[in-house]
Amino acid sequence: MDKILQNLSNLTRMHKSLLELMTAKTEHLIHDNIDELDAIIKKEQKHIAAIEQLEQQRQRMVTDYLKANGFAHSAAPTVEELLVAANEQERNEITQFRAQLLQTIEDIKIVNKQNQKLVYQSLQLVNMTLDLLQPTPPVNQTMNYSSKEVRQPTNMASKTYEV
To answer: Which of 28, 78, 109, 155 has a CB 3.0–4.6 Å from the CB of 33, allowing a cystine?
Structure first.
């Protein structure tokens, strides 16, 4: 059980570290620090890979623990299943790690949504700037690149209509 608790501690620590990176990423998004942003994204990817590895280890350890103690388990055992098999002291520690981990994950989701909005707004600004730099020709004016004929726009205002 000590290894499982250590794993839960490591998972919590890695998620908190990921949250710190994501918060720093927010600042770099706001201030357009592309080089720093790139470095943070690379660190985030490493954190996510480490978290995935820790999660796989947790699942293996919990499976082994539940098997050794005669408890049924699912294919991907949860912390909830571990709580059933743990004694009271272990349950308290597991519950604390679980609460910290769930809160950190919720915080990560919030910061991630904020960062997505910032990226979306930046993308809108880039697209708007590109539209301003590359104006499209008016709808009633067609471009003709042939040397034989040059079309002039039709002047609809000069025509009169009877009602």
So the answer is: 28
- How far apart (Å, rounded) are the C-alpha atoms in residues 114 and 77? 32
Reported pTM: 0.71
Are 115 and 26 spatial neighbours (Cβ–Cβ below 8 Å)? yes
What is the C-alpha to C-alpha distance for residues 119 and 90, in angstroms, rounded to an integer? 43
Going from the C-alpha of 24 to that of each of 21, 44, 49, 118, the distances in angstroms are: 5, 11, 19, 13
Segment 33-70, tens digit of pLDDT: 888 989 999 999 999 999 999 999 999 999 998 888 88
Return the closest-CA partner of residue 11 out of 59, 43, 64: 59
User: In 3D, which of 50, 5, 43 has the Cα closest to residue 21?
Assistant: 43
- CB neighbours (10 Å) of residue 45? 10
Using the 8-state DSSP alphabet, how is residue 31 labeled?
Answer: T
Q: What domains appear along the chain, each with residue ranges and CATH number?
A: 2-133 (1.20.58)
